[in-house]
Amino acid sequence: MLIDYKKVNIDQVDGKRVLTDVDFEVGEGDFVYIIGRVGSGKSSLLKTIYCELDIEEAERAVVIDADMTVIKRKQVPALRRQIGIVFQDFQLLADRSVYKNLDFVLRATGWKDKGDRHGRIGEVLKAVGMVDKQDEMPHELSGGEQQRVAIARAILNSPRLIVADEPTGNLDPETANGIMQLFETIAQQGTAVVMSTHNMPLLDRFPGIVYRCKDGHLERSSGEHAKTSIED
Hints:
The chain is of the alpha/beta class. It has a domain at 94-158. Helices cover 33% and strands 25% of the residues. The chain contains eight helices and ten strands. The chain has a six-stranded mixed sheet with strand order 6-7-8-3-9-10, sandwiched between helices. The chain has a four-stranded antiparallel sheet with strand order 2-1-4-5, with helices on one face. Helix 5 (143-154) packs parallel to helix 6. It is globular and about 45 Å long.
């Protein structure tokens, strides 16, 4: 199990509790949606997975063998190397090319050999269909292209888990479908994907495990109940 939460309480930075007694599990290769209204706790839940928010109270809170209730700051980088993070606003470095964005990450995570870095960058750009854009600057790319680069960045270190916060929120439907196909392929290859979304039609086109945040709790949902949950 990559994520194993039992009776986890999640507070925002200001101390306000947003989710109580969270039970949440993610295994290898799972494709998991987190749905719910704005402010319901989706992003806060995701932030606990990659240590952006601390977990103070839990019966059990484990992410990739790390106990999140006692993890030390010096242990966080090693955990994050096993987690790829994809944001709605891409967060690419604006002052360098696609290639140099990816090379920056590899150098920062311990890849010392230039040839190894070059080879890995080529592999991930091929995987997301962006080899011909490697010399472009982020501002020269469409939103969908920037998100593909962000996904390439997320999979550079062959993570066991991808966490994506509203990754299709700024994209048109056709582009969003292309991004979802990428995530689906990644999950089929064994990397778990956990993503928050407001885009309910995605749940039909790309089926997965669905959890919803509502009234301070996280519930596992399915079928029509899941699709209507945000309006409930």
